[in-house]
Amino acid sequence: ARSSCSSGYFLALMKAADVVDTFGACLAALWFAGAFTGAARRTRRRDARELSRLGRHNLAVATWREDDDERWQAKVQELADRGFTLEALLHFYRGLGTAYMEHWDPARHTTADVVRHAIIPESAASRSAFATVMMKGVPTRPKRMVTHNWGNLFRDLVAAVCADALGEEEYAEIASMLEQDVDRLERMLERVGGMTRTYWVCAFSVNQHCTICAENICGHRDSVTGEPYPICSCSLPKTSNTDEPTTASGASILCEVNKFGEMMKLLAASDHDFEQVVAIDAGFSVFSRAWCIAELAVAHAVGMKQHLKLPSAQALEGQEHGLRSLRIEDMESSRPEDKGEILDSIPDKDAFNARLQRLLFEDLLPAWYDLNGLEQMERLARLLKRQDAVVGRQLFIGSDKV
Which end of the chain is more exposed for a tag (fewer CB within 10 A), N or C? Predict the structure, then answer.
């Protein structure tokens, strides 16, 4: 017994030595990566960006007014109340491949696939936004607006949302956990109170039954089977950007995809902590979508905090040239009328493109790099905390056997 006990204690001490080695290695890596240098410079940049953001936000709050058309404003308010909790999102995610969308493949299926095979069918009976189903009809104000590309892997969209709740800037490891150990991920989220955080995602928060469910005009196909998307038979009337009834300017009052900017302004004006999460896919295609760029511009204009979530820091390599050549005229949209409406709302496109470049290279990306440096330190702290807990348990077990 004494020999077994001593052996356990010795192994625990060896584990403690490994933690010290890990700590030293991490410190060395951080030193050579520059995490300890330029801290004052990063702080000054961060403070300057925050001061500018607060100025824009205070101006947006002071100047925001409800729309003169009560019917339009009521629809904006309705959209603003279609948030959902991260807990509800993960509950839905767990059902993929079992309760619905039996051919679900997390490594291949996109958000568009999930909308067509799960979100639309699971909300067909109520003919409502799936967020309404998720929250059992309870109006829910979001704390985050998620900007994303429907061509991105749905797994990665969920991973980016989880990364936000966990305070992480990269989501590749979380995406792996979504495939291998959702229970562990949920425990991590519960510890930080992330499961109750609320989000707004167009795929869930827009009622697809009054927009796209009855047609597949572009002939899009499932990413795994290659079969055309199924068509919904709910028969709910569809409303486009200019369908009656309209405002004095000709904008459809019932349409749900022509009010994102107004909804963001309302939420930003009514909630100082309403923020934007940008779920960036591996190919950075999110920056080629017209609505995504429009949402980035609105969020910046009204002073919302904006958080970029990338698969990894390495994903940025080789992307600068493409980002520097972005032009709003070249953006894509699933519905031609959406791109037309966005372009019509921008009188000086050259000026808009110049502002977009400043937003990316003087604000969003520098902020991400600064946060990423700080995150390295936070990751080291989390790693040591986990390792310390493991060693503590092993030392306790070893001493208990003496």
Answer: N
